[in-house]
Each structure stands twice: as structure tokens, then as C-alpha cells.
Amino acid sequence: MTKSRTVAEILAAIGDAFKAHDAKGIAAQFADDGVFVNAVGDLAGDTYTGPTEVRGYFEKVFADTPDVAWVPRAAPIVIGSDQAVTQWCRKATTKTGEVMQWYGVDLYAFRDGMVVKKDTYVKNVTVK
After folding, report:
1. Distance CA 111, CA 34 (A)
2. Whether the Cβ atoms of residue 89 and residue 102 lie closer than 8 Å to each other
3. CA–CA distances in Å: residue 39 to residues 8, 9, 20, 107, 120
4. Beta bridge partners of 82
5. Predicted structure pTM score
6. Integer Cα distance of 81 and 112 in angstroms
């Protein structure tokens, strides 16, 4: 299904879903063949393909870190009609009390109003 949305509209929908801890809302932005490449995992990062896998990943994140928040560090950089870069700070406390903070960027690619790739890179920040 082709959706006529701008990159800015898609990014706003993703941002709203992250703020609401809405894994279904995040996954709904991905094309059926859309890929999320996480910064965590093997050297290339764990890969989740399609809305079902993306939703499952974020459901686990929200369950494991109930206070997790992604705070934008700058306005998104939109490149043409099919690419964007976002910068953020992810803060969370695990169920064991460990405080985590990461700076990160997401490299996005879009097709027909949907995310076809979200490639995440992070830098760990020491919390004192």
C-alpha cells in the first residue's frame, strides 16, 4: 500500500510513537520489507525485518526499560525525498537499576511513504 507522506510526517509519527512507548505505532511506519539494523548485536548489528519483527523488538525494549526515552539532539536532517538522519540521546534505567545513556544517530531510507531502512549507530556515555 502506497502512503503519500513526507519524510517529516513519517519522522513525526515515529517520534510520537517512541514518546508513547507504542511499539505497534513504530512498526506501522515500516514497509513490509523494511529493515531496522540495531547498533547492538554482532559487528553489523542485529537486524529486524518487517513490522512484526520491529514491533517485537520494541515491545521488549519498553518492557525491559519502562522509563526509556529518546530525546532529540538536533532537528532531523532530510536529504531529498527519501533519506534522513536523526540525532538523539537515549536514556533508560534497567530493571536491575543500571542507568544507561547513549548518544546516537539513525540513518533512514524511505519508499512510498514508509521506512525501508533504519540503521542505528550509538556512542555510550558514562553516567556519573
Report:
1. 9
2. yes
3. 23, 25, 22, 11, 5
4. none
5. 0.90
6. 10
Residues 6+ apart with CB under 8 A from 39: 45, 104, 120, 121, 122
> In the chain, where are the structural domains located?
7-124
Q: CA separation (Å) from 94 to 53, 67, 69, 71?
A: 22, 8, 12, 18
- What is 7-124's CATH topology? Nuclear Transport Factor 2; Chain: A, (3.10.450)
Q: pLDDT by residue for the chain (128 residues), tens digit each?
A: 456 899 999 999 999 999 999 999 999 999 999 999 999 888 778 999 999 999 999 999 999 999 999 999 999 999 988 999 999 999 999 888 989 999 999 999 999 999 999 999 999 876 65
Assess contact for 11 and 84: CB atoms under 8 A: yes
Q: Are 124 and 104 in contact, with CB atoms under 8 Å apart? A: no
Grid coordinates of 52? 512484526
Predicted pLDDT at 72? 94
